[in-house]
Write a structure and sequence with these properties.
Keywords: Cytoplasm, DNA damage, DNA repair, Methyltransferase, Transferase. One of its GO terms (biological process) is methylation. Belongs to the MGMT family. By secondary structure, the protein is an alpha/beta fold. α4 packs across α5. It folds into 2 domains: 75 residues, 2-Layer Sandwich (Double Stranded RNA Binding Domain), CATH 3.30.160; 79 residues, Winged helix-like DNA-binding domain superfamily/Winged helix DNA-binding domain (Arc Repressor Mutant, subunit A). It is globular and about 50 Å long. The chain is 36% helix and 18% strand.
């Protein structure tokens, strides 16, 4: 049975939840997401698993330690690229989209159409939007850098105010 470690992190945008497997960071919950929903999402994705709440317990995940360190550096404007290992689970299409999101440089944006063309599916802008919406690792896999074809801010799981904050932090908005 797979063990998933999770903890809470207080950041400049509010409380995040992070979770990791032994392979890598697997989930980031944005402020406003209920803890119960975060945990139910882990159970849905990973099935029968051992969920380990690191807050207040002895055993901790070195991957969550690294994610915590990198997220705090990011929010202080001192980190432009995450290096924490990732364990992204989704459909092949979703994983292609998420891999493409990782290629959007810090401080830059791309449109849904740009992502669709980059993965060889030029007519799949809406499907890219759907995969973006299912991104289990917001901020680390920078779905906040995806904008409308006219450069407008559209959709973000954490709300447009958080998206604006992240893009301003990166000087991209």
């Amino acid at each position: 049975m797979e063990t998933i470690y999770y903890r809470r992190i207080d950041t400049k945008i509010g409380r995040l939840m992070i979770a990791s497997t032994r392979k890598g960071l697997c989930c980031v919950g944005l402020p406003g997401e209920l803890e119960e929903r975060f945990i139910e999402g882990l159970k849905k994705t990973y099935g029968k698993c051992d969920l380990w709440d690191e807050d207040g317990k002895g055993e901790k995940s070195s991957i969550n330690d690294k994610a915590l360190e990198e997220l705090l550096l990011y929010f202080d404007g001192k980190l432009k690229q995450f290096t924490v290992p990732l364990d992204m689970r989704g459909t092949d299409f979703q994983k292609k989209v998420w891999q493409q999101l990782l290629k959007i440089p810090y401080g830059k944006t791309a449109s849904y159409g740009d992502i669709a063309r980059a993965i060889g599916k030029p007519g799949a802008s809406r499907a890219v939007g759907g995969a973006n919406n299912k991104n289990p690792l917001p901020i680390v896999v920078p779905c906040h850098r995806v904008v409308g074809s006219d450069g407008s801010l559209v959709g973000y799981g954490g709300g447009l105010e958080i998206k604006k904050f992240l893009l301003r932090l990166e000087s991209a908005y």
